[in-house]
């Protein structure tokens, strides 16, 4: 590998190319299918972790459909695609500490409703 080049992955979809990679990185490409009504059916997520800066980044996160085709190439380049830096999530204890009692109850009710719906859809209740 050349000194100035970055090894990573080029994703090609509908003629558009996205290159993801850093000098020291962990790269993730996820195709997901979710049949839950409140979430997207099919989507692609192309993201990574820049291990030098400890930033989580996202190059692509979009809905896809049946019949979409993708080409993935392992490649070296000095021109990575623009990305979005993802905000680091707060630890759960910190999030809870900042919530009012009303917000905590609303969150618990939302969790309960989600779990109840999931159990009903599976015929368990």
How is this structure best summarized?
The chain is of the alpha+beta class and 125 residues long. It has helices spanning 92-98, 101-121, and strands at 6-13, 16-20, 25-33, 42-50, 55-63, 71-77, 84-86.
Helical coverage, percent range: 10-25%
Q: Whole-Å distance between the termini? A: 57 Å
Question: What coarse outline follows from CA principal-axis ratios?
Answer: flat
Mean pLDDT, all residues: 89
Judged by helices, strands and strand pairing, the structural class is: alpha+beta
Could you characterize the architecture of this molecule?
With 125 residues, the chain is an alpha+beta fold. The chain is 22% helix and 40% strand. It contains two helices and seven strands. The strands form two sheets. The protein has a four-stranded antiparallel β-sheet, with no helix packed on it. The termini are far apart. The model has no long low-confidence stretch (mean pLDDT 89).
SSE layout:
Blueprint: E1 6-13, E2 16-20, E3 25-33, E4 42-50, E5 55-63, E6 71-77, E7 84-86, H1 92-98, H2 101-121
Antiparallel strand pairs: 1-2, 1-6, 3-4, 4-5, 5-7
Q: Keyphrases for this structure?
A:
125 residues, alpha+beta, 4-stranded antiparallel sheet, 3-stranded antiparallel sheet, 2 helices
